[in-house]
Amino acid sequence: MIQRRTFLTLPGLALATGATAQSAKTTRIVVSFTAGGPVDAVARTLAEALGKELGRTVVIDNKPGANGAIGAMEVLRSEPDGHTLWITSVGAAAINPALYDKLPYDMARDFAPVSRVVNNVELLVVNPANLARDAAEFVAAARKSAEPLAMGSSGIGSIPHLAIEQLADANGLKLLHIPYKGAAPAIADLMGGQVSGFFGDVPGLIGHVKSGKLRALGIAAPKRHPALPDVRTLEEQGITGVDSINWYAFFASAKTPPAVVDSLNQAVRRALDAPEVRDRLMQSGAEPAPSTRQELATLLQHDTQKWARLIQAKHIKAE
Asked: Are the CB atoms for 219 and 246 separated by under 8 Å?
């Protein structure tokens, strides 16, 4: 049984009873998703190194639900002193504002960007029995098919769903979107032949690809993935318009003093540069991608606008 909280303590560091020193106070990383999931795994990979940089214990606190909103509100209810961080994927930060008519939080008003953490690029995969050997052949088959090809996603408004919409629109394809409640059941049905294809984050698919249970057809990013160097990008195969990176990032309450947020940014970037952290993330398929605060703010604004345009054009609404 996985505990919802895991305490990661520094070697030789103990929290003395009644201690009030700032250095002894814990830092809590609120994860908007369940324990054992990809965002949780990244947070746990980073936590010990971040604790060393901050000089205090780090706590992982899973607050799943409402597509990230429960975790977001947990951070906003906490003291804005830099001891509570929110790690989330692009969905809760940049997609939710267009997907939901009402949100209990506003990213620009309520949160201060700290740093991007990783980039998870989308990978197009099929069942090994599929005749397509690459993405170009998959697209050609979709064009010739009398019926729309069924493609699974991890849910309405998810990055995999939006990648499907981008692929269809930019390449004149008829694709049937089949939303699932998460990536796992979609992948299971892909392996069982119930759907023809799936876009997913590399960390969630790399094990299936390397074991031969799924075939990788193309990377939906400007460059190839270092963990899958033989898999060409969609652009290399003449397929345009699919730009769907599922980044994870740290945010703090907007009420946090700027100097504290600056200090957190520096600590996160140093932690991500630690060789053991980089190696573990890369082995999992996640690419470390530390950023300045302004770089994350710019990315958030860009992706919020990009996904809003697509969601509005396709009339996508959360269920």
From this structure: no
Among candidates 138, 37, 30, which has minimal Cα distance to 87?
30
This prediction's pTM: 0.88
CA distances from 158 to 5, 89, 100, 154, 181 (A): 26, 10, 13, 6, 10
- The residues near 130 (Cβ < 8 Å, ≥ 6 apart) are 138, 196, 197, 215
User: Looking at residue 16, which CATH number applies to its domain?
Assistant: 3.40.190.150
End-to-end CA, the chain: 30
Residue 88: predicted pLDDT: 96
Q: Could you tell me the residue range of the domain that residue 214 belongs to? A: 121-237
Tell me if 319 is assigned to some domain. Answer: no
What does the block give as tokens for 201? 């984050």
Same-domain pairing of 106 and 250: yes
Helices (H), the chain: 38-54, 69-77, 90, 96-99, 107-110, 135-144, 159-171, 183-191, 202-211, 258-273, 275-284, 293-313
pLDDT in tens, 70-97: 999 999 999 999 999 999 999 999 999 9
- Please give the tally of structural domains in the chain: 2
